[in-house]
Amino acid sequence: MEVKTHRGTGPLQQVIEIGAHRILTDVSRELGGEDSGPEPHDILAAALAACTTLTVTLYARRKGWPLEEIKVAIKHGQEGSAYALHREIEYVGQLSEEEKARLTDIANKCPVHKTLSGTIAITTEAR
To answer: Do residues 22 and 44 both lie within one domain?
Structure first.
């Protein structure tokens, strides 16, 4: 899958193209944008939250566990020399403590969590 970006209509707005999907990203008015979309770090945090909910939901369904809903909140920002992502998970349903613990283990294995926790190599080619 290839992700592309190009300038949007605002002074700093960018259009993200992912296949047939379009997402706007921008920055706050204080930074010179129009706040017409989430900032890039918010999209990164959203990817972790969405991956967590999808991965855990699929696992619980496969096990037949009574997970009615999963709510994930990500607080994120620079903390010293590291960019920190703090994830809070709420499981809704009649789950045992053991099932919740296992679902948390599965959350820590979602593909985006594994990517962000591993070694990331970024190469740049300028034209």
So the answer is: no
Cβ–Cβ under 8 Å, residues 64 and 58: no
Residue found under tokens 């619980």: 60
pTM of the predicted structure, to 2 decimals: 0.92
Distance set, CA 123 to CA 47, 105, 126 (Å): 21, 31, 10
Domain contains 127: no
Check: CB of residue 16 under 8 Å from CB of residue 5: yes
β-bridge pairing 21-25 and 82-92: unpaired
Residue 111 neighbours by CB distance under 10 Å? 12
What pLDDT digit, counting tens, does each position of 113-122 carry?
A: 999 999 999 9
Q: List the structure tokens of 45.
A: 């945090």
Q: What is the pLDDT of residue 116?
A: 96
Query: Is the separation of the CB atoms in 55 and 109 below 8 Å?
Result: yes
- The beta-strand segments (E) located in the chain are 3-7, 14-18, 21-25, 69-79, 82-92
Q: How far apart are CA 96 and CA 107, in angstroms?
A: 16
Alpha-carbon distance of 20 to 96, in angstroms, equals 41
Same domain, 71 and 108: yes
